[in-house]
Amino acid sequence: MNILVTGGAGYVGSHTVRALVEAEHEVVVLDNLSGGHAAAVSPKAKLVVGEIGDETLLDDVFSQKPFDAVMHFAAYIEVGESVVDPLKFYDNNIGNSVRLLRAMQRHDVKRFVFSSTCAVYGVPEQMPITEDMFREPASPYARAKLAVEWALADSATAWDLGFVALRYFNAAGAASDASIGEDHDPESHLIPNVLKVALGQRDHLTMFGTDYPTPDGTCIRDYVHVEDLAAAHVRAIEVIQLGEQRYYNAGTGHGASVRELVEVAREITDHPIPVVEVERRAGDVPELYADSSKIRRELGWSAKFDSLRDIVGSAWAWHREHPNGFDV
């Protein structure tokens, strides 16, 4: 297939681009590089640097190649920032997604894979999370993701768009060959920040909340390897039918606590990784992990990297070889 990947220079996007070209798809990446890295993009893909909100550019990109499908990763991702500046998220994550869909409509492209999030569920009443559970997102970031899901559902009815929305849990890890990995600025994700301590780039890890109703008092999350997420995208693009909408939780089906993760990182890095315990952060919930039976049943997908040690180990290999990320 000919596939346009927006945000394909970012963390999950770049790993998915690599998986797509390995599956012999032709890929064009559209990314403004505000949060992504040109060096992360597979040399077998074409990189177009620009804004997905630029309708003239979109028409030019769609006119140059008859695309079979679009994968959409381009979005702001920092939940805390979305609370401070919600209009930035609504303008980009919703508005530019609509502009992209309009361009697809103009150029008769009707297959779409959307990078959604488990945050659309808000604070679930029970675990594990299934796709049919009530959705009550608790941040502008999550509300914007759910709004795009609604736009996709209405488009499926109105103009025969076929789509898959993958609701990620905690993307983690790095490429198995340590050639690409996670590099955000600022970095807010737990595993990279743990490993920055092991690299000597931070004095300690700040642990937010140790009094949750969990076995060790810290939050539990479902960490899913980024290459497994990439594989889910490749599988999703192969099953889309026009006018059909599908939603899948992309997770391992089990969780790990912050303390467990830190202990695994200590063993892998052979570093003490000092921790400073502080009060809970507003909005953090005790547990989040997926019921992944639907995606296993319908897409034949399951997490290959099911061990926290494998996930943290791959991240450590990337960070150890690239302590400054893609900056060399």
Quick take:
With 328 residues, the protein is α/β, with parallel strands linked by helices.
Write a structural description.
The chain is of the alpha/beta class and 328 residues long. The protein is 38% helix and 18% strand. The chain has a seven-stranded parallel beta sheet with strand order 3-2-1-4-5-6-11, with helices on both faces. A three-stranded mixed beta sheet has the order 12-9-14. It is globular and about 55 Å long. Helix 1 (11-22) links the parallel strand 1 and strand 2 (26-31). It has two domains: 2-169 and 224-250, NAD(P)-binding Rossmann-like Domain (Rossmann fold, 3-Layer(aba) Sandwich); 172-222 and 253-321, UDP-galactose 4-epimerase, domain 1. The protein has helices spanning 11-22, 55-64, 79-84, 86-106, 140-159, 190-198, 226-239, 258-269, 293-299, 308-321; strands spanning 2-6, 26-31, 46-49, 69-72, 111-117, 162-168, 170-172, 205-208, 220-221, 223-225, 245-250, 256-257, 275-278, 287-288.
Question: Which helices and strands appear, and what pairs or packs with what?
Answer:
Blueprint: E1 2-6, H1 11-22, E2 26-31, E3 46-49, H2 55-64, E4 69-72, H3 79-84, H4 86-106, E5 111-117, H5 140-159, E6 162-168, E7 170-172, H6 190-198, E8 205-208, E9 220-221, E10 223-225, H7 226-239, E11 245-250, E12 256-257, H8 258-269, E13 275-278, E14 287-288, H9 293-299, H10 308-321
Parallel strand pairs: 1-2, 1-4, 2-3, 4-5, 5-6, 6-11, 7-10, 8-13, 9-14
Antiparallel strand pairs: 9-12
Helix pairs in contact: 1-7, 2-4, 4-5, 6-8, 6-10, 8-10
